[in-house]
Amino acid sequence: MQHYDLTTLPNGLRIISEDMPSLHSLSVGAWVGTGSRDEEPVEAGASHFLEHLLFKGSEEWPARRISDAFDSIGARHNAFTSKEYTCYWGRMRDAHLDLGVEILAEMVQRPAFRQDEIDLERGVVLEEINMNEDDPTDVAHEQFIEALWGGHALAPPILGTPESITTMTRDTIRSYWARRYSPKSTVIAAAGRVDHEHLVSVVADALGDWVGEEIGRTLSTPEPVATVAVRHRDTEQAHLILGGPSVTRDDERRYSLFVADHVLGGGMSSRLFHEIREMRGLAYAVHAFRLPFTDAGANAVYVGTTPTQAAEVLKLVRGELDKMIESGVTDEELARAKGHIQGSLALSLEDADGRMNRLGRNEITGMEHRSVEEIVAKVDSVTGRDVIDVARVAYSGPYVIGAAGPFEASDLEEFVQ
């Protein structure tokens, strides 16, 4: 049974919604199919800079009017930027859908790009970059991604660099917006108490006259090599990420990988947590994670530990990866992982925000819209053999380490061999 409604306007803009009639609120988002991977070098950080600038509004809806309007109805609103898409969203009473759509439509269609506001927001973005630079966990993640995908469109940081943001001109930002923002690259997603026909009517009035073509993006498969990238920091803790290439976002083996990831480092019952924290007391934080994109994927393990223990921890991580490749999971681990994944999925979709994000993300990235029941069935069908097979793809290297701490790259090179 289809759990959503989807309509495409004549100008190519897509509208997708899911009705949750028991609620008295809704979440609505404007999803644009552009992110940091779509930027030219001179535009590095433009997607995220635009996310800030669009809240400065249009000529008719300046920033203060937008914030006052959202505040006056008790709404929450924000935005986020990724490597492949940008989303502007609001959560409000269902009675205020029309106003929410009107504001989002003004923001994405008619940004003012006032020079004084660009200059002010430039400072805000630079402070955000500085804040990330002060967080060694963020630094380690950026080091890992750059080492894994250096030279590929996925490698540059979403925020850009201090140099690129400082020198970015109004014309550069406006040209990027004109090239990447169009009805054909945009999805309006809503979930909560929402009537789809009314939503379509409201969106058509606000965005139906918007014109522009979708420019698309160039896809290519990166070819990682074993690498260590370290940002030397005199910190009390070493932040380590070890991983390598894995499956893409739409690979059907992802359900088996969900199971493998959970058993390896998905919670307090995971192998890495038990071995590194519970049995040896070598770390407070340790977990496995996945980076799925259209043309590439990665799986990795993060650990924060005392620098003198880094070698021991990395040996343990490599050992657990090898064990997963060789023998997979036990029947008990398989059952526990399935239960966790299915339960977490249900909990994540209990509110309108979770449903809207799932609809919008899947539609903007071209993923199939599967119901909770369909996903549960996919997870249920995973076998122990499936886990071993996908582990051999996702955990076999070439290994890459990204790190922040008081050591050099040469100190860690043995762990990527």
What name goes with the CATH superfamily of the largest domain? Metalloenzyme, LuxS/M16 peptidase-like
Q: What is the name of the CATH topology of the largest domain?
A: Cytochrome Bc1 Complex, Chain A, domain 1
The string of secondary-structure elements, in order, is EEEHHEEHHHHHEHEEHHEEHHHHHE
Second rung of CATH, namely the architecture of the largest domain: 2-Layer Sandwich
The top level CATH class name of the largest domain: Alpha Beta
Q: Which structural class is indicated by helix and strand composition? A: alpha+beta
Unreliable stretches covering 5 or more consecutive residues: none
**What topology, given as strand order, has the largest sheet?**
1-2-6-3-5-4
Describe the structure.
With 417 residues, this protein is an alpha+beta fold. It has two domains: 5-207, 2-Layer Sandwich (Cytochrome Bc1 Complex, Chain A, domain 1); 227-416, Metalloenzyme, LuxS/M16 peptidase-like (Cytochrome Bc1 Complex, Chain A, domain 1), CATH 3.30.830. It has 15 helices and eleven strands. It has helices at residues 46-54, 63-72, 97-109, 115-133, 136-149, 162-167, 170-180, 196-207, 254-265, 271-278, 310-327, 331-348, 352-365, 372-380, 384-394, and strands at 5-8, 14-19, 25-32, 76-81, 86-93, 186-192, 227-232, 238-245, 286-292, 297-305, 400-405. Helix 10 (271-278) runs antiparallel to helix 11 (310-327). It starts with a strand and ends in a 12-residue tail after the last strand. The model has no long low-confidence stretch (mean pLDDT 96).
